[in-house]
Amino acid sequence: MTKKIIVMIPARLGSKRIPKKNLRYLGEKPLIQYPIELALHVPEFDSVWVNTESEELGKAIQTMGAQFHKRPPELATDQATNREFTYEFMCKHDCDYVVMINSTSPLLRMETVQKFANYVVENDYDTVLSVVSEKEETFYQGKALNFSLENKVNSQTLEPVQKIVWALTAWRREHFMKLEQAGQCPVFAGELGLFEIPKDESCDLDTEEDWNIAEGRITAAGIRTEARYLKL
Amino acid sequence: MTKKIIVMIPARLGSKRIPKKNLRYLGEKPLIQYPIELALHVPEFDSVWVNTESEELGKAIQTMGAQFHKRPPELATDQATNREFTYEFMCKHDCDYVVMINSTSPLLRMETVQKFANYVVENDYDTVLSVVSEKEETFYQGKALNFSLENKVNSQTLEPVQKIVWALTAWRREHFMKLEQAGQCPVFAGELGLFEIPKDESCDLDTEEDWNIAEGRITAAGIRTEARYLKL
ipTM value of the model? Predict the structure, then answer.
């Protein structure tokens, strides 16, 4: 049985720390265009929606090939949660899974998004979270978590620590809606799949500094200059 | 009583994945020049040594203001450990603390290195490790570590997870040597201080891709272009 998977890209026009972030050019194109282009290239995705309160942004993203889901104004405030606007989106769109792609993950590669889609199709999870896995000596609450203070070992042999990055998330619609209606939190619920994304595809875009770093990384990815060396 | 603190910058000429990494230009200058310049600017540091097996590299770093500690060839192999060459270095240089600065941390800011020096001077730790602290929902061994699956909260309210980054490390010489001589591992030993460095100052330089990212970040830090926006 084929799973119907639709993509939701949340995009408020009024972002706080970086104003109008989604419209801002990062390298060659506006931020919002990155997840749209990625999503449109994956055959497993039935449709690609941008979830925004803004009519103007809604028009712009349609020229990029996405569809416009108009978010009600009361769910576009700073207080409204991801959970709330995702539920409202699900109420309007029938499907098996909603895949959320964050516009703040412009470094995602096509290959990774395709693998994520395959992972959702081939497994039967209620929730799939994207994580970055790191093998580094880690402390938690002042205690060594995945290593021993008695002995230094090669970090490649350490047990990994995985953090959620919210670049890609999938929820089984029926399960999410049932929990939400029962007053339970559906965000991490049910059978959980953890999908690893390469570390260099994750980034933050909360501050001007983050933006600058991402811009540098996107620029650097395009220009591979010849290595130069100090002569001895 | 003043603490005598000396800096050791480990730098093999024969690096594997990125050949002759320390001589390679990252932006405006060779990689090895970054930690040397940082260390020379901190008044609390008594002297700055590059620990390398290479006579040629030893000459080059002296033109940059550092001193040359010649590492014995048997400690310059892939099998030799950080612990071994640090012990050998300590045997030759009297001091209270050795601060190790890795050349693979070119994004460190002067201010951070100065704060680290103050932290070593003002406290009385046997070992000071640099860590990056992150407030992200984290899994360890398949279980939620610092959050509840029952409830999604603002990630700023999560308990942080701290990973060692090896950008800056300090060891009390006497303590380190005593443990090493007793056959115990001195790397994480004794009273441990965890010094937080800003996330954007840590980086990896293990692969060409890492190098590309760091180059992009260094370039981006210098050029702050005006924000451009998609017109609606």
Answer: 0.91
